[in-house]
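Dissemination and training. As part of the outreach component of the grant, students in the summer workshop were shown how a complex can be specified as a set of sequence lines and then modelled as a single object. The example used during the hands-on session is reproduced here so that future cohorts can follow it. Participants entered these lines:
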Amino acid sequence: MSAGPGISAAAAEPVNHARRVIVAWLVLSVIATPLVAVFLGPAIPPGNGSDEASQQVFDNQVMTAVITPILCLLVVFFAYALTRFRAQAGEAALDGPPLRNEPRVQALWVAATGLIVLGLAGFGTFELLETGAGGGQGPSPIAEPGGTKKKLEVQVIAQQWQFTYRYPSLGGLESAQLVLPAHTDVALHVTSLDAVHSFWAYELGVKADANPGVDNVAYVETKGPRVFHVRCAELCGLWHGYMFNNGLVVDAADFSRWAASERKNFAPVAKYMPAYSHTYLPEPQRRAG
Amino acid sequence: MRSVTGKLALAVAGVVAAGVLIGFYVSKLTTQAGSPTYTVPVKTGGAHPVVDLTIQTVAAVGPALSPNPDWVSFLVRDASGKWRRETVWRLPAHATVHVTIYNFDGASGLRNPFLARPQGVDGNRIVVDGKPLAVLPPDEASHTFAVPQLGLIVPVAPVPDDARNQCGYAPCSLSMAHRTETFTFHTGKPGHYRWQCFVPCAAGWITGFGGPMQTIGYMDGFLDVV
Ligand SMILES: [Cu+2]
Ligand SMILES: [Cu+2]
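and obtained this result:
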């Protein structure tokens, strides 16, 4: 970008276009980057509903901050080139001078882009390995937040077209509502009984595919009591768009109360439930007859 | 060669046309899919209306009611006693709804036994042939009537395989082998609530969940609460 496009128009007037572009870029970047990092980054979902969600907000802040100067450079360069080097009405269309190697520019370009890409890859990998970032990690997760610290296990069962939730620590209790205790490490084991679904607990920053016969583990550390939204994020048939409900994070006392009342509700069907398992392959797969 | 403005206008027109088409299909699908709305008559009016909803569930809907005569279906009985294959039902808000289901179909069984527990209905009980039940054995479920947004799940008891005088094509008359199931629920605030069957009851479809299980007018519909 240093000298190339400037030469044809600049033959008569010794203008350093590169310097102009760089100065404009620096000014714009210095103004825009902190604004984006402080105001735009945190406004990108999912909010601060869990530790993982907050981590995602931080990641968004870092990435938008890194991207902003790059975007500024492109905007400034295009704006400058489009206005400064635009052909005037009636002007003969002349070919520009041939482009030649500029080793310093090339080296700088490769080094800068390499540094940014590798830096973001390193940052992303570090962030991902810290907690799994709320994503489904398959049956053998490698990024377990808090090491092997004991977590509350909750199974997410997707089916056409509703999520239900099973709590092995509450005697295999199943519920149509997801209720989690506040300030707790939770291991979500996501599976499906039929088609491919995707469990998306929006404000908790959790998204994990629900595949039949697969145990997909995602971790989340809840914060204070709140309501969050659960949606299916994988097109799964007629009522895919209606496959949503609200989940709750509640304090310990409310969680115990809820568990007690759900236990009562669950009691009549308990004897028919299969033993708690990380996957189920239920019959009937096809109606007889 | 076309002008830039012309090209731009063409591109905008293309995007708008695609949007209108997608919107049309999506709205058709998520509202009523061409299925007419049946307004359930109000028995007692006022702030807390009372409504009777009478349904039958059938193994084969028959050529008189559908171009897919072998599909399973729900039917609703109108004020004149006629059975209609309409599954979008308009109900008043904050109403008590007394539902009677006449089931003429056999058992298919639930994939998730949890859904055999009646929920979201008065007493969390269903009454099957006069007998109150807190759960139906999951393997016996013939269909369910479920409105997940209202937390309502009701399993439907089956006609035994060896029952005599079984109904072939709907509409089925009450002189044929059937189970009678009743329960009561409340509509709450106005809204557009989808309902569905959870039993993989669609014979011949992969995992029993195609065809009538994915088509409004058979095993799926809406409660249009106004
Ligand atoms: Cu789904
Ligand atoms: Cu059914």
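Chain B has one helix and 14 strands. Students were then asked to discuss how this feature might be tested experimentally.
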